[in-house]
Specification:
By secondary structure, the protein is mostly helical. The chain has seven helices and no strands. The chain folds into two domains: about 30 residues, no CATH class; about 55 residues, 30s Ribosomal Protein S18 (Irregular). It is flat and about 50 Å long. The structure holds zinc ion.
Length: about 100
């Protein structure tokens, strides 16, 4: 009986995965693209309550040279600050301080 069950599991890897989901993460064949390190919002860490469009030194690390707004998963900004940054960057584009096209 035991042998039969083992063979069955080998043939059907999906079923095995579901059975021991906790263990299977450790021996995954492919590497993950992201790290488990938790990012901290730099603006929260510096206790900046509001990001103004005139504070270009604050906005600069959150957009590329081509004017693209970097996603939260890259910068680690919190939702509140990401919204403020997005608005500030869009205002800066309108004022021709940043380009529209990327
Ligand atoms: Zn924040």
């Amino acid at each position: 009986m035991e042998n039969n069950e083992n063979v069955k599991n080998e043939q059907n890897p999906a079923a095995e995965k579901q059975e021991n989901r906790g263990e299977s993460q450790a021996r995954r064949p492919f590497r993950r693209h992201f790290s488990n390190k938790k990012k901290v919002c730099r603006l929260c860490a510096e206790k900046i309550k509001h990001v103004d469009y005139k504070q270009f030194h604050l906005i600069k690390p959150y957009c590329t040279e081509t004017g693209r707004i970097l996603p939260r998963k890259v910068t680690g900004a919190c939702a509140k600050h990401q919204r403020q940054l997005a608005r500030a960057i869009k205002i800066n584009r309108n004022l021709a301080l940043l380009p529209y096209n990327d």
